[in-house]
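From the shared-data thread, chain only:
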Amino acid sequence: MKTLTVDGRCCRTPELTQEYLAKKTFFPTHYGKNLDALWDALTAYGRPIRIRVRYPASLERNLGEYGQKILAVFRQAAETNENITLEIG
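Structure, as tokens:
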């Protein structure tokens, strides 16, 4: 099982956050680096993956509404794709 660990302290701007996710993940090289692309990559992934979001308060504090949306994408993707195990905290 692959693990994606997202450190909210490293998420300073939406652009840097998308770059961070692109570098840390299994996402395809054509990953669009936006919330829709994040959703598509997570829900289409066909193997088990664990997503660990550390320091979610920092993610929300640094990114505001965009941080909340990223967390929502992770939550909704985990509900949609049974291969995703999500840990926030």
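The beta strands are 2-7, 49-54, 84-88.
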